[in-house]
């Protein structure tokens, strides 16, 4: 019997959906951070040999305009005594009503375990002019945080985050402030 276009499309959609769901259900870490002006979701997956892949989306509502950042990253991770360190790069696409920019940010983040349940951390990523295209000349992303792990697979944190894109003499700050976050390991 000849299948209709809709049956084939439905079957294909069901197949793709099941692949995505099975892929998402094996995620290593889902991280959600938010404030009154910003929300970010990160999905990180251990891909073997101390490598981690990351997908991220950030939406910010600034006094001047709303902006969004979509990113994909690849990192190498290591642990040394009380430190957990992640180094690598992120390909990002920044867009708003008036600004479009793409770039590659290089940097690292680290957490220091004060006890089994408490940690402090920070990160710094920079995309220089040579690795930034579009409206920005460069892009900076940094944060510092204090966190608590109530369980082995969950953490809560408070952070100060600073994001800045430079356009010659003009600096655009999509977010500069405090946020709260929750991360869950699967």
**Count of helical segments?**
1
Largest sheet: 10 strands, antiparallel, barrel
Output the radius of gyration. 19 Å
Strand % is: over 45%
* Average pLDDT for all residues: 87
Overall helicity: 10-25%
Output the helix-strand order.
HEEEEEEEEEEE
What's the shape? globular
Low-confidence stretches: 18-22
Tally of strands: 11
- Give the strand order of the largest sheet, numbering strands 1, 2, ... along the chain: 1-2-3-4-5-6-7-9-10-11
Structural class: mainly beta
Distance between the termini: 43 Å
Task: Write a concise synopsis of the structure shown.
This protein has about 190 residues and is mainly beta. About 10% of the residues lie in helices and about 70% in strands.
Structural features:
186 residues, mainly beta, ten-stranded antiparallel beta barrel, 11 strands, globular
Describe this structure as you would to a colleague.
The chain is mainly beta. Helices cover 11% and strands 69% of the residues. The chain has one helix spanning 5-25, and strands at 29-34, 38-48, 51-61, 66-80, 83-96, 100-113, 118-127, 132-134, 138-151, 154-167, 170-185. Strand 5 (83-96) and strand 6 form a beta hairpin. The chain starts with a helix and ends with a strand. The model is unreliable at 18-22 (pLDDT under 50).
């Amino acid at each position: 019997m000849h299948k209709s276009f809709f049956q084939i499309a439905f079957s294909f959609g069901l197949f793709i959906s099941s692949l995505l769901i099975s892929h998402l259900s094996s995620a290593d870490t889902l991280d959600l951070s938010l404030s009154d002006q910003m929300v970010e979701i990160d999905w990180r997956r251990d891909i073997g040999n101390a490598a981690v892949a990351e997908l991220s989306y950030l939406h910010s509502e600034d006094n001047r305009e709303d902006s969004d950042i979509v990113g994909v990253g690849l990192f190498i991770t290591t642990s040394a005594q009380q430190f957990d360190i992640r180094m690598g790069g992120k390909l990002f696409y920044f867009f708003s009503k008036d600004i479009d920019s793409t770039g590659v940010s290089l940097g690292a983040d680290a957490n220091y375990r004060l006890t089994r349940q408490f940690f402090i951390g920070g990160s710094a990523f920079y995309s220089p002019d040579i690795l930034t295209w579009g409206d920005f000349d460069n892009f900076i992303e940094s944060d510092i945080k204090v966190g608590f792990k109530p369980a082995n697979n969950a953490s809560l944190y408070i952070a100060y985050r600073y994001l800045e894109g430079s356009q010659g003499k003009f600096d655009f700050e999509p977010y500069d402030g405090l946020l709260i976050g929750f991360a869950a390991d699967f």
